[in-house]
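COMPLEX REQUEST
Ligand: (2Z)-2-iminopentanedioic acid
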Amino acid sequence: MVIQNKHLAQVYADVEKRNPGEKEYLQAVLEVLGSLSVVADKRPDLVDAGIFDRIVEPERLIRFRISWVDDKGKVHVNIGYRVQYNSAIGPYKGGIRFHPSVSASVIKFLGFEQTFKNSLTGLPMGGGKGGSDFDPKGKSDNEIMRFCQSFMTELAKHIGPDTDVPAGDIGVGAREIGYMFGQYKRLRNEFTGVLTGKGLTYGGSLARTQATGYGACYFTNEMLASKGESFKDKVVVISGSGNVALYACEKVYELGGKVVAMSDSNGYVYDENGIDFALMKQLKEVERGRVSEYPNRVPTAKYFEGCSNIWSVKCDIALPCATQNELDGDAARTLVKNGVIAVAEGANMPSTLEAVEVFLEAGILFGPAKAANAGGVATSGLEMTQNSMRLSWTFEEVDEKLKAIMKGIYKSASKAAEEYGCKGNLVAGANIAGFLKVAEAMKAQGVSY
Ligand code: NDP
Ligand code: 2IT
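STATUS: Structure written out below.
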């Protein structure tokens, strides 16, 4: 990808120098700056205010030690991170990820993306992200609890309901949020909405669990409608089988489509008759099992080793909902060759830069992560609102607001694309629309942060 605008090319060169070898972070920055050349050309005031130089440097990156004791009494040490990326439009907001691949580069890319995503929701939330290289797989419930408590003992020093509000991400769901919330309350003696994705008995919002997957489908529906299409009778492939993938699957069926393949990091399962959502939910969410066990219960389903081959399954709609860079240029070419009409990113940055170029050149409908998966954080924003008002809305009320927000995101991304001369390119549109709000706020607030 080439950055046309000279100032932005220099900004990117500086980012490369300051963050050597941080490939995920550099990839995310390159993609956004690549789209913003048209903005820099039109808005010398933003160049003069140093907005581009400032927006690519996190306000703060906290790195800390997490010591914890396993069930056998052995001491372990992991690294914890919180990036407080940008607070121009609201308190820092974004998930926490527990996965062995977590590094400063991964957390910074996620915090950077989150800044623009949160801006697109229209809600007052800045960008943040956190996590640890801790691997929750194979740990007992007590080990998970002790780890979460140790993690929060340090994180509590840096967060607060008006400062920074974390939530879940890979490896962090309702169980982990519960343990972290409990520890925060113990330390502060305060019952506040400091985390979102909480359980329904202690301040969580109805529909937050479903929100990212549902939202990705609502966004896809908007893209399809622009071409007179819908999910009706469409064959859909969804990668992953975690929180986002599961609820995307449920919504695809509700909208009339059929999900024929889902995966985890070891492999994928295919059933031309359609994946049974209730069974997959039971297997993954309740039993915490593996996708490879699915064919034991459904004889028509077949399991294949290796998760990346899922993209060779012929489909009309592809929803990558697992992790970053899970869909490369070759996978994108295969999808296009097999006649895919729409791809929407439920995960963060699941498509490589090359894959995105393949989709855009092929002219298929492509919904980038910061727009397509914003339903999760948007509903977290709604959870914050309910916590502040000390009341809770019904599932239907939250779901209606989520739908309206996803429609709004589609509209602002397509409008920005059109206004800046790249009609139909939602990657550029989402980057530009998300950026402009943050940029105006930063300019209004003066230099320094
Ligand atoms: P979960 O932990 O619930 O599920 C993650 C899923 O992705 C699992 O099926 C997991 O398989 C798979 N996966 C994880 N890492 C890899 C990998 N390296 N290679 C292949 N598969 C992998 O996480 P979520 O569903 O919450 O998150 C999925 C994606 O969606 C992430 O990119 C996240 O950032 C993004 N997202 C999440 C939101 C949320 O509200 N939860 C909101 C917006 C975006 P396995 O079990 O084998 O590890
Ligand atoms: O990537 C994301 O948007 C999330 N993991 C959700 C963040 C949130 O604060 O709900």
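REMARKS: The chain has a mean pLDDT of 98. The chain is about 50% helix and 15% strand.
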